[in-house]
Amino acid sequence: MDSDYEKALALLISGEIIGMPTETVYGLAGRVDFPSAIAKIFKIKNRPFFDPLIVHVSSVAMAKGLTTTWTSMIDVLAHEFWPGPLTLVLPKSSFVSDLITAGLGTVGIRMPKHELALKLIRDLGAPLAAPSANKFGRSSPTTAKHVQSEFKADSVFVLDGGPCEVGLESTVLLVDGKDLSILRAGKVSKSEIEKVLTAAKIPFSFSEMENHKASPGHMKHHYMPAIPLLLIESPQISQLPLTDLKKIVSQKMNELPAEIQGVKIIKPQSVDNFVELSLSADPTLSARQFYSSLRDCAETKADVIIFYKKEFHSGENWEALFDRMRKAASLVL
Ligand code: TXA
Ligand code: MG
After folding, report:
1. Cα angle at 147 between 20 and 305, to 5 degrees?
2. Ligand 2 center to residue 332 CA distance, Å?
3. Where are the domains positioned within the chain?
4. 47-74: per-residue pLDDT in tens?
5. Ligand 2 centre from 137 Cα, in Å?
6. Is the CB–ligand 1 distance for residue 8 below 6 Å?
């Protein structure tokens, strides 16, 4: 192993936090058994204390130590989808502090599918708490460079594990006995979960979360780029001449509040230069490119980033991407 890996491991051993690669997005990682490391994660991210952290493990045995409940359903889900982009929210054991879970009786657990993350956790012999490595409310990082630029002032060491393969945060699944709810959409879809449980003859039922009380970190606005994103969903609006569109956008942007739920809404000084966000027509590639392309667009210093949603952008494969897109957008027309 190279010296960057050794450095990352030594920092974690000493109770420091680091930027850690995973297959979804980069995480800001610290040992779960070091309260000072957990406190530092919240502080550096400007994260509110009501938003719980996900705990990363390298084995099923390690996951079992974090929860009081390990049913055959959980076993099937873990064996099928781990390592991978599925976070299971389960009743927490006393090993997990209230700071990590924001006082909830449950903990989010996942095994990341990235060789370096798994090796770090294995070598430490301790789980790592890690939220996405971005400041609160902002876009998640999918390269080591993104993390470095996000925490320039905080001198956080980042272990470079290359660009993230998935590119969007994990699916968060609340497991309450036989009842399942998807708290956050991700690459692992509801129908994949249904298929696996049906094949294993495990009884289950999905409930739609009417409100997101069960997931306190879920905000209307999140993942926002440095310049405002305008998402155009209406076919009529997308047909408008640019001058008319600019007038509407300018007026609507003016009407927006400065912040919502503690997240600063990104507003342009003026609405003159648009840069179009373009993504692959393939949902897997599109997810991989999304956060990185948003950052690239923001660097052009245009006034507004614009994305046109097309007819083919529908169905389960696009769900996670448009969940993030809608939350990242200052305006949806
Ligand atoms: O892919 C990912 O999940 C990435 C990588 C680094 O693993 N992590 C990530 O963490 O996206 P974060 O903190 O940005 O988002 C985790 C979200 C929280 O905002 C919260 O809504 C939900 O997961 N969550 C965590 N623990 C929970 C719990 N006990 N109950 C309900 N929701 C929980
Ligand atoms: Mg996040």
Report:
1. 135
2. 21
3. 2-206, 229-332
4. 888 899 999 999 999 999 999 999 999 9
5. 8
6. no
Provide the pLDDT for residue 212.
53
The pLDDT of residue 101 is above 80? yes
Domains 2-206 and 229-332 share a fold: no
Instruction: Give the right CATH number for 2-206 from 3.40.220.10, 3.40.50.200, 3.90.870.10, 3.30.390.30.
Output: 3.90.870.10
Any ligand 1 atom below 6 A from CB of 51: yes
Q: Which has the closest alpha carbon to 287: 309, 315, 320? A: 320
Q: How far apart are the first and last CA of the chain?
A: 50
| Cα–Cα distance for residue pair 91/94, rounded to 1 Å | 10
Give the span between the Cα atoms of 104 and 199, in whole angstroms.
Answer: 32
Query: Separation of 237 CA from ligand 1 center, angstroms?
Result: 35
- CATH class of residue range 229-332: alpha beta
Measured from the CB, is residue 55 less than 6 Å from ligand 1? no
The rounded distance, in Å, linking the Cα atoms of 300 and 246 is: 18
**Using a 6 Å cutoff on CB, does residue 67 contact ligand 1?**
no
Element (H, E) at 205: strand 205-206
Q: Which atom of ligand 1 is nearest to the CA of 134?
A: 14
